[in-house]
Amino acid sequence: MGQPHPAAHFLLAAALGLLGALDEARTTAKAGLALNPSFSIRRYRTNIPNNPVYLAGRERVYKGLRIAGVPES
Description:
With 73 residues, this protein is an all-alpha fold. The protein has helices at 6-19, 22-35, 41-44, 52-68. The model has no long low-confidence stretch (mean pLDDT 92).
């Protein structure tokens, strides 16, 4: 098996947050932060394609990450 991918934890945490599973979202976000302590929503926003449909979907991910307790910066 390979190394764990922090991004998978953060995307799962965002989805769980949007579903209202707050305890699971926060636990998953903490696991991601243990793997990548410098992760933040601000850093995640950098270097993204300039496509309106993609960006709209990304806003939902940001909302889920906030709900899960991922730091803004």
